[in-house]
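User: Can you model how 6-O-phosphono-beta-D-glucopyranose sits in this protein?
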Amino acid sequence: MKATNTNQFPKDFLWGGAIAANQAEGAYLEAGKGLTIVDLLPAGENRRSIMKGNVPSLKPLDGEFYPSHEAIDFYHRYKEDVALFAEMGFKALRISLSWARIFPNGEESSLNEAGLQFYDDLFDELKKYQIEPVVTLAHFDVPVELIEKYGSWRNRKLVSLFELYAKTVFTRYKDKVKYWLTFNEINMLLHLPFLGAGLVFKEGDHRKQIQYQAAHHQLLASALAVKAAHDISPDAKIGCMLAAGSFYPYTCNPDDVYKAMEKDRESYFFIDVQSRGQYPAYAHRFFKDHGITIEMELNDKEILKEGTVDYIGFSYYSSRTTSTDPEVIKKMTSGNVFGSVSNPYVPKSEWGWTIDPKGFRITANQLYDRYQKPLFVVENGLGAVDELTPGGEINDDYRIDYFRQHIAEMAEAIEDGVEILGYTSWGPIDLISASSGEMKKRYGYIYVDKDNEGNGTLKRIKKKSFSWYKKVIESNGDIR
Ligand code: BG6
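Assistant: Here's the modeled complex, given as C-alpha cells:
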C-alpha cells in the first residue's frame, strides 16, 4: 500500500460525496412532482430489461414495488443528512435536480415553484456548512410525459425543452451554484437506453440509429446548456460526465488491442464532442458501417463548437477488459453494465464489478492526455453488503480498503500531472442502486435502515468508514 502524504492534493480540493435525486429523494409525487424514468423501474428481475428499453407501461403497475418512490426519503430528511455530511467535513456535495420536480410534464406551462423552492432550501442548508453544491441537470431523468408525447430524446423537441429547463435553473440558482454537470454518464444511453435517455423500443426498430440520433440531441442540449450557463453566470463551471473505466485488451494480439481502442471510443465519442466541439473522425466510419444517418440542422455544428465544457466529470468504478477470442468472451463478469471479460489479475465485488485501483490512475491519465482539461471525479465507490453487529455497528473495513487504494492512485495521478478538481465518492449515504434497484448494495459512510423490500425505519447510522473519511478530508488526503 502506498502511503499518501497530504501535499499531493491542492489546498482547495473538493472532497465530498455524490447522490442523485432519482435514488435519494423519494416523495415521487409530492408537491407537484411529475413521474420520471426511475419511477417506472421496479425492483426485481424485470428491471434490467426495462432499463434497456423494453417498457411494458408508462405508468407504475399494481403489484410491482418501485424503490424510487420513497427511496431514502432525502426530500424530507435532507437537513439531518446534510448535517452528517458536514460532520464529515464535506467540502462539496454532488446532487442532481429532478427535472420533473421543476417541470412536472416537461413543458413550459408546468413550471412548479414548489420544486424550485425545495432546491433553494437545500442549497441554503449546504451554504450553512460551506458545502459547495455540484449539480447535475439530468441524472437518469426525463419527465415521463415527454416520453409519452415525443418519444423522449429521439425527438429534437427535447433539445429546446431541456434548454428551457437549464436556463430556468441557471437563472434561479446563479448565486448559489458554481459547478454544474449536464448529463450523468451520458454514454449510458448506449447500454441502458431507457435509464439513460428514456428511449422505448418497438420490435423492428433500428436501435443504433435511434440511440445515436438521441445522442445527437443530448449533445446539442448539453452544448446549449453550457453556453447558457456561461451567459447567465460568467463564473459558472460546467462539465460533462462520463461513465469511465478504460478497456484493456485481454492479450497483446493486435486484434484485441484494436478492439479495446474501439470500445474506449464508444464512450469517448460523447466527450470528444462535448469537450472538442465536433464529431470525431472515427464516428463517420462507425456511422457508415452501422447504417446510421444523423439528421442535423444547419447550425448544429456551430452549436456544438460554441458549447464545449469547462471540465471533464467522470465516474470510475472498474476497468474493463475485452477480447476477440470467442472462448474468452464466454467469461464475462456478471453484473457489469458495460460488458467486460473477466480480468484474472484483479478481484471483483460481490456484484461482479472489477476492483482495480490502478485502473483509476490509468483512466485519469488517459482522460487528461486526451482532453487537457481539469477532471472532476464525481463518483467512485464500492457497493457491498453491510451487516449490523449485535451492538448496532457497521465495521466496513472492506470499504475503507477500497477507498484507501483508490485515493492513493488518485494521488499518484495528481503526481503524474493530472489536474483534478475534486472527489465526490458515490452514495455517501446508502441509497437505491441504479442497476439493481436494491438497498442491499450499499455504498455509504452512513447506513440507512431499509431493506430491498422497502421495510425499515430509515434511521441513519454512522459506519466505521464515517470517521475514517472525516480524517481523510480533515488532513486533505491522508489515508492512513
Ligand atoms: C453510476 C450512476 O452508474 O453508478 C449512479 O451514476 C449509480 O446513479 C452508480 O448508482 C452505482 O451503480 P449501482 O448500479 O451500483 O447503483
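A couple of observations from the model: The chain is about 40% helix and 10% strand. The chain has a mean pLDDT of 96.
User: Helpful, thanks.
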